[in-house]
Design brief:
The chain is mainly α and 445 residues long. It contains 17 helices and 7 strands. The strands form 3 sheets. The chain has a 3-stranded antiparallel beta sheet. Strand 6 and strand 7 form a beta hairpin. The radius of gyration is 20 Å and the shape is globular. Bound molecules: (2R)-3-hydroxy-2-(alpha-D-mannopyranosyloxy)propanoic acid (2M8). The site of (2R)-3-hydroxy-2-(alpha-D-mannopyranosyloxy)propanoic acid has 10 residues, from helix 2.
Amino acid sequence: MTTTTVPPETLAARAAYILRGNDIGELTTAAPQLYPHLWSWDAAFVAIGLATLSVPRAIAELRTLLRAQWRTGMLPHIVFGPDAGYFPGPDVWDCGVADTAPAGVRTSGICQPPVHAIAVRRVLDAGRRNGGTDRDLAETFAAETFDQWLAWHRWLATARDPAGRGLLEIYHGWESGMDNSPRWDQAYAAVVPGREMPVGRRHDLRHVTDAGQRPSDAEYQRYLWLVHQMHEARYDDDKVRDTVDFRMTDVFMSAVAALSSEVLAEIGDEFGRHAEAAELRALADRFRAGVLSTVSPETGLARDEDVRSGQRVDVPTVGGFAPLLCGGDERVVARQLDLLTGPLWCGHPALRYAVPPSATPELAGFQPRTYWRGPQWPFMNWLVWWTLRRRGATGLAAGIRTEALRQLSDLAFGEYYEPFTGEALGSAHQSWTAAVALDWLLTAD
Ligand code: 2M8
């Protein structure tokens, strides 16, 4: 059945063309102009899309990210390619000051949500479906790199959850991937840059049709100040934790860690790594419990916390749906499913497409055109779709897929979408947008 207003083969062909166009060799840029490098969680979704076209190319993408792994186990949020057109670039991050940065590759000094095990799962499944060389390559890849993914999860569990609460800490909004979400407003309000930061070097504003689609200069002042503080701490995990002006638990990242730990445990078992699989399952339990401990009885949403003040953030953003991702309490999940389909979220009467907005339109301060403050994000639709199916909510998942593909039928492959009009915003030809379209259209299961 056709689920889009353009034929699915047209949409798939266009998506493949975009991924091909953004491929600069060993990495696929997150977007052609705005993001001319590899971003950690983008690369996972990109690999999922690439796996529908070429299993070896999908593997190459993940290997590029793994080559940039820090000696601590951290996967950095950006792996820089040769292009100079992004700010803050490698000169600003200057990760050479860290003892643990990888040699021979330029990276940022922070991380992003650990969705990667889902990509490994998807690549492995594609290889096995195709059989022959693809199966061999995918199985070799999963077996060979298992320890690196494990190291990444172990690093998160120790460096970012030092007290074992089951809640990962972040030291920059960029680490959440939802950079200027209203989730972080309160925390950023308390960040006072100690000096003027060079926001004039921003490139991003040149690549969007209006500056209102991006974070403001005042926000960038704070973003850069935090980078400066981390650099001063030489990106040492303990020192950063003690000195940086932003220290939040991130429920969404914690839920992703629970989900991915579960997925990586399944892969571990398939390759005879039973002890490590048990360790990963214990981590999944820990993060799940952490996420569930934050759910508001009033709103049913999970809440981030300012670690220093202990204050919880009661702001209704898509991050609050963390329990949908990690599960663990049927009543909480059932309530979240009602919420998700209800009038505050996907069932909001003014939405053009019934997919989750990054914040509820009912939030005071909701901004339908601004980045993580209201627009809908196609890769997020895919993540919600995938987890809903995994948890057996197949009908609801199918509805999200249909609506998400309808949204993409403008063939713009936007970074994000205006929820009321369906206008594509931010960057055009965004890689993870094209990638999830390909997976939806070309993967049967
Ligand atoms: C956005 O973040 C970068 C900084 O990391 C930026 O605005 O310059 C976010 O949407 C993030 O989640 C995403 O990974 C990145 C690349 O698509 O862009």
